[in-house]
Amino acid sequence: MSAHIGVTGLAVMGANLARNLARNGYTVALHNRSAGKTDALIEAHGDEGEFVRTETLAELVESLERPRRVLIMVKAGAPVDAVIEQLTPLLDEGDIVIDAGNSFYEETRRREEALREKGLHFVGVGVSGGEEGALNGPSIMPGGSKESYQTLGPMLEKISAKYNGEPCCAWVGTDGAGHYVKMVHNGIEYADMQVIGEAYDLMRSLGGLEPVQQAEAFREWNTTDLASYLIEITAEVLEQEDEVTGNPLVDVIVDSAGQKGTGRWTAISGLEVGSPVTAIAESVFARSISSQRELRAETNEVFPSGLDEHTPEVPYQEEGTQQTFVEDVRKALYASKLVAYAQGLDMLVSAADEYGWDLDLKSIASLWRAGCIIRADLLDTIMKAFDAAPEDRPKNLLLAEEFTEAINECLPSWRRVVAAAATYGVPAPVFSSSLSYYDSLRRDRLPAALIQGQRDYFGAHTYQRVDKEGTFHTLWSGSRIEVDA
Ligand code: NDP
């Protein structure tokens, strides 16, 4: 019997996707560079469905029905190119090569073009949800040609996470669109995690709430507009006691956050497509600062953290004031989280323009409702916000009527929390940059006018006027008369 799909690369992600496919009734041909992983998978899980063991890529290709579908799940980067190079001579026109790893979207664009020239479909698929998701239903963001989705889509939809029965999988756009959307998902994830971290730090340092008390607060928040997977697991982490010391686990974990690169890619792409993803970039930088442990220790010796004689006393730890402060932090968190989503979605619109993708924000929001890390109740409301004819859609999430009231309601708290963070010296880079983003967008005049004046002064970069058409330059070093440029 021919297999429906082949999977090459059977480390944890590939093995779990292969098992997910087999459990859903597909016959899955298995291949790994070293046969040990193939055998281990068959031995441990061979009874979960129909598997075909193969030892070479030629055997793998041979075992597949047409058009062939080969899913590559090897280490991102050069190994993907190595596998493609070995695989493509074995395939025929119309066959589909799928890369479901964490590949950089520009590489996916390059690979798609190269394979298209050979008559093959190359589908870059964003997969979110980690090991567990790969096995039980991830959020799936496929790119590539629409034609390839006709035969591949139903399989991916079947193994994806479901939200109220709807698959969290839909074609997002051509070539690298799938990996791009996954990358932005991760960027939003960075910002979402950072704002939760800032909320925790403020409530602990200024509100005096111990981790266990905060676990309760986060659990409570998970019944509000903030309800989401990340809030849920935050409560679990804060409640965890360290087995060795008996202290909260969060107190014995080194405060240096790791990163694998997708947040950095999102920030870089934001710069490239000219989309101000300030919350996402600040989150990446916050992780970088956290990693500068030696520098932080030295700085702490010179400028100790905590309050000095000029700082007023922290007023948030009395009964009543503490509750008000916690509620302020909750609202600041919600508003900042909205900004992170607004910036991520905005960046998708800019990227769609840049790369010629026809991205549907409503559909993309629907893919993130289950199976992935940023799943949140908020996404249902985001879908409603973009459920309109293109000309009637809000230009920015913050302008959606579903959210304007929420922003207005959160605003006083947001300002109080950012002011408190600055007054008492607690870093809150994403709370404050998100507030600045909101204030920048709504400001009638920005100081950019002065910057244009400076640019014209030192570099004759010219400027435009508010009162007439044209481009102008002032003769700064001479008569200071304005001339048409
Ligand atoms: P790894 O990234 O650890 O890669 C290991 C696999 O790649 C092995 O099967 C290995 O084969 C194979 N491999 C490495 N180099 C080559 C090569 N030159 N030629 C052929 N095969 C090669 O595996 P993971 O399962 O952790 O991740 C797979 C992909 O999924 C990655 O892109 C990763 O970033 C992504 N990922 C996604 C997650 C998500 O949440 N979406 C979570 C984790 C990972 P061998 O056994 O012979 O060494």
Automatic annotation (TrEMBL):
SUPFAM superfamilies: 6-phosphogluconate dehydrogenase C-terminal domain-like (SSF48179), NAD(P)-binding Rossmann-fold domains (SSF51735). Substrate binds at residues 102, 128-130, 185-186, 190, 260, 287, 455, 461. SMART domains: 6PGD. Pathway: Carbohydrate degradation; pentose phosphate pathway; D-ribulose 5-phosphate from D-glucose 6-phosphate (oxidative stage): step 3/3. The keyword Oxidoreductase applies. Pfam families: 6PGD (PF00393), NAD_binding_2 (PF03446). The keyword NADP applies. It catalyses: 6-phospho-D-gluconate + NADP(+) = D-ribulose 5-phosphate + CO2 + NADPH. Homodimer. Belongs to the 6-phosphogluconate dehydrogenase family. This is 6-phosphogluconate dehydrogenase, decarboxylating. It comes from Nesterenkonia cremea.
